[in-house]
Amino acid sequence: MDDGKATVKELQNEIAEFCTERDWDQFHNPKDLAIGVSTEAGELLELFRFKDAEGCKKLLSDPKGREDVCDELADVFYFVLRFAQMNNIDLSQALSSKLEKNRAKYPVEKSKGCSKKYNEY
User: Which of 93, 65, 89 is nearest to 79 (CA)?
Assistant: First the structure.
């Protein structure tokens, strides 16, 4: 399965089946899933610690480094999908809603080419 063919629902169903087979639903409450997102994001971040832009490019161009990044990114994605699946959150709708809010916070005329937070303009 690849990004061009998989749907969010299909990925959630695959994760749900994986977890059901292992009787893990009992461990997947909102708090622990949120901790999982944060923990795995920290592990992804750790791969880039103390690397400048060139070091990051080198990490991603190295087969083992890229595999490590992909594994950690997949772990983050797993927990995001699982959280949404367990709590009946439509990720596509949540993203669309958040983008609308961000369009209001970050109008193009103020934010284009600018890394400031919306309250710093």
Answer: 89
User: Which pTM was predicted?
Assistant: 0.91
In this structure, are residues 41 and 78 in contact, taking their beta carbons and an 8 Å threshold?
Answer: no
Domains of the chain in sequence order: 8-89 (1.10.287.1080), 92-121 (no CATH)
Report the C-alpha gap between 7 and 85 in whole angstroms.
13
> What is the number of alpha carbons within 13 Å of residue 76 lying toward its C-beta?
13
Span 52-65, pLDDT tens digits: 999 999 999 999 99
Name every residue whose Cβ is closer than 8 Å to that of residue 111 and which is 6 or more positions away in sequence.
118, 121
List CB contacts of 16: < 8 A, sequence separation 6 or more: 82, 85
Q: Which residue has the tokens 């971040």?
A: 45
